[in-house]
Amino acid sequence: xxxxxxxxxxxxxxxxxxxxxxxxxxxxxxxxxxxxxxxxxxxxxxxxxxxxxxxxxxxxxxxxxxxxxxxxxxxxxxxxxxxxxxxxxxxxxxxxxxxxxxxxxxx
Length: 107
Known about the structure:
Blueprint: E1 2-5, H1 14-23, H2 27-31, E2 33-36, H3 41-50, E3 54-56, H4 60-69, E4 73-75, H5 85-97
Parallel strand pairs: 1-2, 3-4
Helix pairs in contact: 4-5
Protein backbone atom coordinates (compact mmCIF):
# COMPACT_ATOMS: atom_id res chain seq x y z
CA UNK A 1 0.00 0.00 0.00
CA UNK A 2 1.09 3.56 -0.68
CA UNK A 3 0.09 6.51 1.46
CA UNK A 4 0.74 10.20 0.95
CA UNK A 5 0.36 12.74 3.73
CA UNK A 6 0.13 16.36 2.65
CA UNK A 7 0.05 18.58 5.70
CA UNK A 8 0.57 21.42 5.40
CA UNK A 9 -0.14 21.94 1.72
CA UNK A 10 2.42 24.27 0.23
CA UNK A 11 0.51 25.27 -2.85
CA UNK A 12 -3.08 25.31 -3.90
CA UNK A 13 -3.99 22.54 -6.24
CA UNK A 14 -1.57 19.96 -4.84
CA UNK A 15 -4.32 17.46 -4.03
CA UNK A 16 -5.83 17.94 -7.46
CA UNK A 17 -2.47 17.31 -9.15
CA UNK A 18 -1.87 14.17 -7.11
CA UNK A 19 -5.41 12.94 -7.82
CA UNK A 20 -4.73 13.30 -11.55
CA UNK A 21 -1.47 11.37 -11.16
CA UNK A 22 -3.24 8.66 -9.16
CA UNK A 23 -5.97 8.38 -11.81
CA UNK A 24 -3.26 7.86 -14.45
CA UNK A 25 -1.90 4.62 -12.96
CA UNK A 26 -3.40 1.23 -13.70
CA UNK A 27 -6.36 0.09 -11.63
CA UNK A 28 -4.43 -2.45 -9.52
CA UNK A 29 -1.93 0.17 -8.35
CA UNK A 30 -4.59 2.86 -7.94
CA UNK A 31 -6.47 0.71 -5.43
CA UNK A 32 -3.30 0.36 -3.33
CA UNK A 33 -2.71 4.12 -3.13
CA UNK A 34 -4.40 6.26 -0.50
CA UNK A 35 -4.24 10.01 -0.86
CA UNK A 36 -5.13 12.24 2.10
CA UNK A 37 -4.41 15.71 3.42
CA UNK A 38 -4.16 14.30 6.94
CA UNK A 39 -3.86 10.96 8.75
CA UNK A 40 -4.74 10.66 12.42
CA UNK A 41 -2.07 9.33 14.82
CA UNK A 42 -3.92 5.99 14.90
CA UNK A 43 -4.02 5.80 11.11
CA UNK A 44 -0.34 6.75 10.89
CA UNK A 45 0.59 3.91 13.25
CA UNK A 46 -1.43 1.39 11.25
CA UNK A 47 0.04 2.64 7.99
CA UNK A 48 3.61 2.40 9.29
CA UNK A 49 2.95 -1.08 10.64
CA UNK A 50 1.63 -2.25 7.25
CA UNK A 51 4.44 -0.63 5.24
CA UNK A 52 7.38 -2.57 3.82
CA UNK A 53 9.51 0.59 3.87
CA UNK A 54 8.77 4.10 5.13
CA UNK A 55 9.86 7.32 3.39
CA UNK A 56 9.56 10.22 5.81
CA UNK A 57 11.03 13.29 7.42
CA UNK A 58 13.04 12.44 10.53
CA UNK A 59 11.04 13.87 13.39
CA UNK A 60 11.67 12.19 16.72
CA UNK A 61 8.18 10.67 16.92
CA UNK A 62 8.55 9.09 13.47
CA UNK A 63 12.05 7.82 14.22
CA UNK A 64 10.87 6.35 17.54
CA UNK A 65 7.96 4.56 15.88
CA UNK A 66 10.22 3.19 13.16
CA UNK A 67 12.60 1.78 15.77
CA UNK A 68 9.79 0.19 17.79
CA UNK A 69 8.19 -1.25 14.64
CA UNK A 70 11.62 -2.30 13.30
CA UNK A 71 10.85 -0.82 9.90
CA UNK A 72 13.41 0.05 7.23
CA UNK A 73 13.18 3.68 6.20
CA UNK A 74 14.50 6.36 3.93
CA UNK A 75 14.64 9.42 6.17
CA UNK A 76 14.82 12.89 4.66
CA UNK A 77 15.80 15.37 7.39
CA UNK A 78 14.66 18.96 7.08
CA UNK A 79 17.92 20.79 6.39
CA UNK A 80 19.05 23.72 8.51
CA UNK A 81 16.57 23.55 11.36
CA UNK A 82 17.42 25.73 14.33
CA UNK A 83 18.81 22.89 16.45
CA UNK A 84 19.61 20.50 13.58
CA UNK A 85 17.35 17.98 15.31
CA UNK A 86 16.13 16.23 12.16
CA UNK A 87 19.69 15.38 11.11
CA UNK A 88 20.48 14.23 14.66
CA UNK A 89 17.36 12.04 14.70
CA UNK A 90 18.34 10.50 11.36
CA UNK A 91 21.85 9.88 12.67
CA UNK A 92 20.40 8.19 15.76
CA UNK A 93 18.24 5.98 13.53
CA UNK A 94 21.30 5.20 11.41
CA UNK A 95 23.25 4.17 14.52
CA UNK A 96 20.42 1.98 15.87
CA UNK A 97 19.53 0.38 12.55
CA UNK A 98 23.03 0.37 10.99
CA UNK A 99 21.95 2.25 7.89
CA UNK A 100 23.71 4.49 5.42
CA UNK A 101 23.27 8.27 5.33
CA UNK A 102 22.63 10.12 2.09
CA UNK A 103 21.39 13.51 3.24
CA UNK A 104 24.40 15.46 1.98
CA UNK A 105 23.50 14.63 -1.61
CA UNK A 106 21.63 17.14 -3.72
CA UNK A 107 18.57 15.73 -5.42
